[in-house]
Amino acid sequence: MTGHVALVTGAAAGLGKGIALALAAAGSTVVVTARRLAAGAEVVEAITARGGTGWATECDVTSAESVRAAIEATAARFGRLDAVVHNATSRRSSEPVDFERAGPQLWREHADVSLTGSFTVAHAAYPHLRESQGALLLLTSPAGMRGSANLSFYAGVKGAQRGFVKALAREWGPGGVRVNGLAPLAVTPALAAAFEADPTMESRIADKVPMRRVGDPETDIGAPAVFLCTAGSRYITGQTLIVNGGRDTFL
Amino acid sequence: MSKRVALVVGAADLGEAVAHRLVRDGCELILCDPHDPAPAAARITGAGAPVTTLCTPLDDPDDFRTALGTTLRDAGHDALDVLVYTLVSAEAFVPRPLATLTGPEWQRLAEDPIRYGLTVLQVAHEVLAPRRGRFVLVVPAVALEGAAELVPLATAAETLRALAKSAARRWAADGITVNIVTPDVFAYGAEHLRGTDVDRGEAVLPGPGTAADVADAMSLLLAPAAARLTGTTLIVDGGALMTP
Ligand SMILES: NC(=O)c1ccc[n+]([C@@H]2O[C@H](COP(=O)([O-])OP(=O)(O)OC[C@H]3O[C@@H](n4cnc5c(N)ncnc54)[C@H](OP(=O)(O)O)[C@@H]3O)[C@@H](O)[C@H]2O)c1
Predict the structure, then answer these.
(1) What is the value of ipTM here, to two decimals?
(2) Which of A21, B49, B114, B151 could cross-link with A167 by S-S, CB 3.0 to 4.6 Å?
């Protein structure tokens, strides 16, 4: 995959980091973006230590200027951009919401990262993806398809991404740019801490998964993310791949 | 027995058709729109039923809560039996490539409509709970399949669908059901979209679907027989999609 350049948002930890590592292992040059440059740089160190190529740059997806700057800096540095993975999600994603009483500000916190952020990232990346016949991948969630009683705002913005993926895939298809979604289940640092605090939590979740385990960010989620970002999936667009050990089979 | 009280949000053609249908079904009607619901209300009143109107912005749930509370009290009602949300701005049906949109245009076309729907959903629980009422969200079926140059519309519609399903999960124990109706864009009168990507020409029933057809299908969800339905999506597209 010489010359394949991929940018990942929110890539300092969790799934973003797993996807960045997997992309690098598959030969992509990976632009690790994060709100804190130092956190991104640590992931690049891990990539380099394994013989891969990475570069860290700051990017807050709630700022259109920040997104544009990161994408333009990538294009200037590497001369191309083949794949963009919008992985970042609000820090409040897993906080239960008092749906009936929550104020507009809380909705904005979710929407800024996932909804406006999807627009901003897609808009800024388009000229480069068009040139490279590249791919946009959004991390979404089954919550966006099924709804969620407690994580209702999260479900809303994840549903948003599903509508966005389908419509944009149809729009960009004629130009050869692909747009897909990936709905994962994997252990992140936050989830690992929750498992630590509540010893039966992991098995309660795993019991609902036919494969009886919670995924690993790099090996379980990273690999299908690489697939959706690269040529092997060149005839796939407008789809959401559910990567959660068979937990959801309704699609 | 007192009449059922229904609130219809959105007074464009589709909302008006829904309002007509609810009046024919014997509901006392409140018609709400952030712009002027009066002309549509006058046409329905002209057909013989009094209609209460509510012209209010939908940006903030607290403001809407207050405005709706006042309207209900003034009309002599304490709660709602039915709330149907139909609001979609005409501008949302104008095809625009994503690359040509500015940030503020994205906000106006995709995110403001979500805010309006969320506002109404948030307030709906307290007005529907006393009578174990029903909520129906009507959004264009472009939510389900997407369409080129209608990214803001598809995104907003699918967001509201996910929020409505979340409400369905939350409110089931209180006896409130929340269902979704997805008509094709032509039922909204978007004739200018004929021959574009959203027009796949796959409907199998003869003739175009109308706003009245959508209103009739919507009323099925309000029948006593529909009590066990919640979080479901009724696709009113003349048999185009046929999935799942
Ligand atoms: N883990 C799962 O099982 C699961 C399930 C379903 C869906 N997903 C989806 O997968 C994606 C990753 O999830 P995760 O579990 O890895 O989440 P996470 O551990 O909460 O990580 C979220 C990442 O987003 C970053 N972020 C937050 N706000 C940002 C902003 N304004 N700009 C840039 N980055 C920002 C955070 O970085 P900071 O350190 O700067 O805050 C963090 O690195 C999300 O889209 C999520 O919805 C995950």
Answers:
(1) 0.97
(2) B151
**In the sheet where B28-33 sits, what is the strand order?**
B51-55, B28-33, B5-9, B82-85, B134-138, B177-183, B233-236
Which chain B residues contact residue A238 at CB under 8 A? Answer: 146
Task: Look up the CATH number of the domain holding residue A146.
Answer: 3.40.50.720
Contact B166 A100 (CB under 8 A): no
Question: Would you say residue A248 lies in a domain?
Answer: no
Whether residue B97 and residue A171 make contact (CB cut-off 8 A), yes or no, is: yes
Which phi and psi (to 5°) does residue A86 adopt?
-95, 100
As for how many domains chain A has, the answer is: 1
CB atoms within 10 A of CB B131: 18
Interchain CB distance below 8 Å, A100 and B122: yes
Q: Which residues of B touch A159 (CB under 8 A)?
A: 158-159, 161-163, 165
Helices (H), chain B: 13-24, 38-46, 61-74, 103-106, 112-128, 142-145, 151-171, 211-220
A168 interaction partners in chain B (CB closer than 8 Å): 98, 146, 151
Q: What pLDDT score does A2 carry?
A: 54
Is A94 inside any structural domain?
yes
Joined tokens for residue B157: 């519609």
Question: Distance from B197 to chain A by nearest Cα, in Å?
Answer: 8
The structure's pTM equals 0.98
A26 in a structural domain: yes
> Tens digit of pLDDT for each residue in B124-143?
999 999 999 999 999 999 99
Domain that includes residue A38, residue range: 5-241
Domains along the sequence of chain B with CATH: 5-236 (3.40.50.720)
**A69 lies in some domain:** yes
